Batch of 2 targets.
Target 1
Amino acid sequence: MKWTWFHRLGSPKWFYELSGRWLPWFAVATVLLIATGLVWGLAIAPPDYQQGNSFRIIYIHVPASFLAQSIYISLAIAGVVSLVWKMKIADVALQQSAPIGAWMAFISLLTGAIWGKPTWGAYWVWDARLTAMLILLFLYFGVIALGQAISNRESAAKACAVLSIVGVVNIPIIKYSVDWWNTLHQPATFSVIEKPAMPAEMWIPLLIMVVGFYCFFTTVLLMRMRLEILRREAKTSWVKAEVARLVGKKHE
Amino acid sequence: MSRVFFLLILREARLLARRPAELANPLVFFAIVIALFPLAVGPETQMLRTLSPGLIWVAALLAVLLSLENLFRSDFEDGSLEQWVVSPHPLTVLVLAKVFAHWLFSGLALVLLSPVLAIMLGLPADRVPILLASLLLGTPVLSLLGAVGAALTVGLKRGGILLALLILPLYIPVLILGSGVLQAALQGLPTLGYLLWMASLMMLTITLTPFAIAAGLKISVGE
């Protein structure tokens, strides 16, 4: 009982201080990795022998798709943590990472469409992987809409946690059924993943971009979470002191 | 425990018998949506027959969704839900009874109405048993998944569109399998595999969703 009280009161401030120390490192890593990956991928890596230069969009497309999928899983993990241990921070993480995940899914779809036009001759085909990503985007919209519709913060946290857990249980089922649906109606004429084996000068920048995107996600998430903590804990004395310090620093 | 289950179903039956419109409205909606499609895409028999599996399933899915919006509403407003939460019986069993009763009256009616509409769309009469089997296995899944959304949104003033937003993506596997059965039946392919898949989906939702529904109701009541 004593510990729950301690935990609830102590966590946001502790997290705020800790994340303040982490944030610069992640920000620097993001800038370095993404700059290296972009220059390497867009300028130095050799063009594809079939697709020419249009393949270079994978340096954005693949990391965004990775993130879109793993962020939804992290939503469910945050949901379990906030339901089981009633941690405020987990709920803040859930609410704040859902919009980032939705944007990543959108970027993945958009870059895929841009790439699809010169390569497949169509912006959109009802391929299983594309459709699954579109459904993932809809699932993100559901979590965001539910979080905004419920005005009581504690209820919203629990409801979003339950919804994201239900969603994560459903994702494999949706994925398999969509794969099946596609193979039913038409044999796979092309696959997004099966490419000629990539040479190292192509996949190393891709790997750098993927790691860079994860660092970018962490940086943006920490920034959003810190802002949300300040907003939620606005009545506490440490937040007032912190805000006064931040505002004071700006005026000097 | 099983006594509570049956008492609850009896109570729901009595309530629905006093408000028959609630039962009829989703059915009328189902019929109207089906009637809209020939008007929109043209009356060619061959095309309608090809489209019929998808049309029937999309219309059934929307009708179930529409009927679910008020699943817990009146119980929430008159305080019955609070009694459920504080009662000694497990909430999961109570919600399972509630959803089962709802399916027994609105879902089953939908299943019974579907052959008429399917034949109007040109589905051959000998495929009707397969249509009935797929709907019998699929509509409980729709009701149970929808009940999760209904439980989460019952406390909100305007939950209808939100409910659709939350639940429709989760309905996709049922839609794919359900219309897949009929598609296969129309092409003369074996359908047993699909039906077994739908049956396993049904078992999965019957065992897992009551926990999610109960959690959702506790959140909504606690607010």
Target 2
Amino acid sequence: MTAHNSTTHTGTAAPATRPAAPMTMAAALNAAIRDAMVDDPSVVLFGEDVGPLGGVFRVTDGLYAEFGETRVSDSPLAESGIIGTAIGMAIYGLRPVVEMQFDAFSYPAFEQIVSHVAKMRNRTRGRIQLPIVIRIPYAGDIGGVEHHSDSSEAYWAATPGLTGVTPSNPADAYSMLREAIASDDPVIFMEPKSRYWSKAELALPVRTAPMNQAVVVREGADVTLIAYGPTVKTAIATAELASEEGLSIEVIDLRSLSPFDDETVSASVRKTSRAAVIHEAAQFGGYGAEVAARLTERNFYYLSAPILRITGFDIPYPSPKLEEYFLPTPDRILAALGTWEWS
Amino acid sequence: MPHDCVMSLNVESAPVITQPAPTPLRLIDDAGLAVDPSEAGGFALPSPEILLGLYRRMVVARRFDVQVTALTRQGRLATYPSALGQEACEIAAVASLGALDWLFPTYRDSIALLTRGVPPEDILASFRGEWHSGYDYYQHKIAPQATPLATQALHAVGLATASKLKGDHTVALTLLGDGATSEGDAHEAFNFAAVWQAPVVFLVQNNQFAISVPLDKQMACRTIADKAIGYGMPGYFVDGNDVAAMYAVVSAAVDTARNGGGPSLVEGLTYRMEAHTNSDDPTRYRDSSDVDAWRGRDPIERLEKYLVSVGVLTDAERADITREAEDLAAATRECMTRTAVIDPLELFEHVYATPRTALAEQRDFLANEIAEHEAAAAKTTGESA
């Protein structure tokens, strides 16, 4: 990284509001980082290929040219090094936004994330805060080879001290990433790769619900489908199919995995009395187990049926030609709902 | 500093880094005699006044270390990893830093904290089991003592890089052990530092044991300092029991970093005189003859001989140093008589900056449980009265 000097271009101010335009999730994330960097000179961005290339998914496209080497830089290819140095920068007052290039490539950084990022604030009785955003492109359905399609959210969600969020659409992508960068807590920001190219009409800087809240994205009366990240689209498609058969499905986009929005989800489950959680990750010990358990503990007497988990199988993520058999589909979800006793 | 390392990503233009000497650099030998300047690697012997200051700090630090080990043997501390015999490395590290520089220590470096001004009570908070760490990091510019090996080296590189990005002149120094250099994070830290030309100094205290495993089972290269060459930074192999050499080399490395010259790796060859911790039994893996030999190379006794020979360590001075050391030992014992009262509900206070409903519920649960236990205990007491 080159040192600060007076000729460094620090970007031009972001206009207060911009006209609505169609935008992909990748572009919305890019705009969020850019706007945050304009608003706050302590925000720095680094990781593998995030510089001139703009990231392998182009999420950081143009930021190196706009902000220069002082604020945006390629790092050596070492994930523990990326997180470890981000910790030191945060201690010194910067707000690093770093990228783990693919979900499974975050594992070399596991120790730094779990032993330091998550624990520093508690260890130091609040004296040292680590406002770091760790962006992780995650999950499958992109025809990726091995190590490019993992859903690792349960590791992060199970770690006290981490905040874990995942947007499912471009508006949330912008709003939640802005909020994550502004947060004094470290945030694992999981970006569903299969949704990078999804589009929405956005007038930036768009603000959606606070990132720690779940949102009812489709109202229904009979069943609550709980989804997040890549499976929100699947859940909505399921609800549309089901409505043709006269079944009214409510879809919740969790958005935040840690913390979990008990209030919003429990209210929905109490209304519909039936719930299923959908994720790509394997079922055993997965995030859905926590959702089912805490909803049952809190709402048992409101339930008409056991809470189901419709998830990936308990196997490593398959190769591209077989992933269609692994991922939860509307048909599989509807079939699972059909196993309930409906009376 | 006798090197002209200016790293560049253009490999052809990068200067060759000279291989460190195969024998440790020393400025004062085992007998307490100054070595001939021709054998001093271009480093000047620090003045008697500087050395006297280092001597005072080493004596005081050792008194603290011995006191805390004694408290641990009495069962009054959960654990204490001693740095006995490593005072030259620890004190040279701290003495080389400026007030705005940052230190990234490990669990074995408590005397470095002490020397940089952390009160004994705050150092001992973690070893007493009160909290995982307990001092004012920003006041002292010392990161929490790291337990996972080599992880703190990356934090040091990150802080140093942030200093450089901001145009500051803050330098970071991290303390590592020989075992830690086997960790992947040590490699990543050395490499990131060299590529980013971070103003950081890696001080590896080679005390020759990782708990029980000797250095020859950690690595196959000649010295730890040699490893620096592969990263494109200078490495220095130094007698870690010679505080004069350690101070001369580390302070030169700090100056180099501060002046834009990038990182350095300094290996101090020393010996862990005590067990790894109070729960370790070193007789299972090393000979007492080895320990005795190293006792003969004691860093304090060696410097003492030199200071007496040049006439700066007077009886009055010695008495004053002893008084300071004993006062500190007394203050350390005294602080153990104070029991910190920690509210168990504080367990929930610091995990997140952003409040969480679920944590508030668990906090209330614990508060109720405590209140019920207290009420039950009060009732029992009342009945038996």
